[in-house]
Write a structure and sequence with these properties.
43% helix, 3-stranded mixed beta sheet, binds zinc ion, 3-stranded antiparallel beta sheet
C-alpha cells in the first residue's frame, strides 16, 4: 500500500495520520495474507525503532474498529489481522495453510435476520462470517504431497 493511500484512509476514518499507523498499514497492505500482531511488530521495528507490542495491538484494534482491518480467528488462539480496502459488505475466505485471504462478495445472511425476528422477536444488528479452508494453490500443492499445517 502506498503511503498516500494509507494517509487517505486514515483521513477518511478521521484518525490522525501518524508514522506508526501508516507503517502498520503499509506492512499489512504488502501482504495478501493475514499476520499476527507480533509479526507486524517484528516487521515494523526495523523501520520505526522503539515501538512496543502493546502499541501495535492498540493500532491494530483501532483499525479493526474502523473496519479497515479485519480480525481473523484461528483455533491456535492467536489473533490475526488482514488489511482489506474493500469497504462494501463482504466476507473473507482464509487459507489455513498459506494464510492467503480472498474476498467473498456474496452474502446470503439477509434472510437470517428475518428468521430470527419471526422466531424470537430479536433484532440482528450485524454479523461476522469467516470462511476457512485451503486455497486453490495449496490444494494443488497438497495433492503433490506437501503437508499442511493442521488447525
Ligand atoms: Zn493457501
Ligand atoms: Zn476483503
Ligand atoms: Zn454478510
Amino acid at each position: 500500500m502506498e503511503q498516500e493511500q494509507g494517509r487517505e484512509i486514515l483521513r477518511r476514518l478521521r484518525l490522525k495520520v501518524t508514522p506508526r499507523r501508516l507503517e502498520v498499514m503499509r506492512c499489512l497492505g504488502e501482504e495478501q495474507a493475514y499476520l499476527s500482531a507480533e509479526e507486524v511488530w517484528n516487521r515494523i521495528r526495523p523501520v520505526l525503532g522503539s515501538i512496543g507490542l502493546p502499541t501495535v495491538y492498540r493500532i491494530l484494534d483501532e483499525l479493526a474498529e474502523a473496519q479497515v482491518v479485519t480480525r481473523i480467528f484461528r483455533s491456535d488462539r492467536t489473533q490475526y489481522y488482514f488489511l482489506c480496502p474493500n469497504q462494501e459488505h463482504h466476507h473473507h475466505f482464509i487459507c489455513e495453510s498459506c494464510r492467503r485471504v480472498e474476498d467473498v462478495d456474496r452474502c446470503n445472511l439477509d434472510g437470517v435476520a428475518g428468521e430470527i425476528a419471526r422466531r424470537s422477536g430479536g433484532l440482528v444488528t450485524s454479523h461476522i462470517l469467516q470462511i476457512n479452508g485451503v486455497c486453490g494453490e495449496c490444494s494443488r500443492l497438497g495433492e503433490g504431497g506437501r503437508g499442511r499445517d493442521a488447525a
